[in-house]
Amino acid sequence: MAPNIFSMLMDGVSSRIARWAYGAPEREEKEERNQRYYKGYQDAQLKITKGYDDNLITNYSRLVVDRGVSMLMGHDVDFYPPDERAKEWLDLCWEANKKDICLHNMAKTGGIFGTPVVKIQPDGIEYKGDLYPRLIVQNPKYWQVFTEPEDLEHVIKYRMEFNAQENGKDVTRREDFDLEDNTWYLREYIDRGSGFEEYEKEQIIPYEFPLVLHWQNLPQFDSVYGEPDITDDILVLQDRINFMSSNISKIIRLHAHPKTFGTGIGNGKQITFGPDDMPLLPEGADIKQLAYVNDLSSAQNYLLSLRQSMFDITRTVDISSMSDKLGALTNFGLHVLYQDAMSKLATKQALYGEGLEEINRRLLTIAGFTDTDPGEVEFGDALPENTAETVNAEKAMMDMGIQSKQGASQALGIEYEETQAEIDESKANEKTFGQNLLDNFMRTGSVVNENQQPVQLRKVN
Length: 461
Hints:
There is one protein chain. It contains 13 helices and 12 strands. The chain has 461 residues and is of the alpha+beta class. A 5-stranded antiparallel sheet has the order 4-5-6-7-8. The termini are far apart.
């Protein structure tokens, strides 16, 4: 169904109205700022005087996002559809799309912008002689999501708009995925300065879904977009941290050394000091020193307090604050320390898990599988543990008869059947070697080792 002439003429006006209705300018401004702060291009907190820039950027915003990405995607993410053939194909498809890098990029865009957006290009990548869909992680700041006014979960349009070059001239490109009469359409437009016009022929999407999807990084009940890891209040703290660290650096630069000054010398004379110099002063003159700054502990403690506040508010574990206690932490202590971070992680796993399941369902549909059940997404365990303590606890339960070797192996992350097979094989090899020694002795009256070298036997008294 092609758009009518009236809708084409009103497209520019309706676009502006929609952008304001969906809060696009404010959202885009925040997304630009978040990306800028993540990359370290943060607002200077001190004025530059006498050509010297004392501004320091201590980029905890990036650290908060990166730690969140590592906790979510840095510990093996696996997919388990019920159909074994589907699992084999999915594993190859994700392998073709460089799975780990792709997942990290999804989590990073979510942490910065709040809403991961992924575009699917059918038959977009060749891998091991076959074609697979390509997963393209998008920059969310170029995308808008339109929903039914009364239902934020019912998406009716995805729109990407970006600036480009055509024949050396600036143009604006637009790509719309529109839902009309339960059918998705792809429509592409271009604005060369006189309004948007059709750029490519309209395409009907041959699936019940568009070739783009989104989900929330952290939930927002009143918006189709998610919440990023770095919000307005976090960036206020980031600015204050930069202000304090810059001020401390400036104080040290200006006042780390004693300053010598003279009184009663007259005429503003400069007096030089050196190892072999003896300054001659007029009667009544005096030379003194300004006390240098040797105690910034209060300022440093305040800076540490700001840092800790930033990690507390973002529900991120600050490892440096407990570096002196790491060796003494028990598993119970680790669970308490990571409790808030793990709760935040569980929320992210629910949201990203749903998004990844939907990606897998669409991939299986595009591949032509009749069973498109994506199954479950399994995230690796992000919580560190005291291994020795865990081993002792499992051994104690085995001694009490309430835990099996197989159960203990699973708790310790050991593949029981493979390990048991290796142990059995090792024992069999030992038995075979001993039997060979005995057989050789009975047959020849001498003993040789596996390298056919004589073995010296000791007489036992």
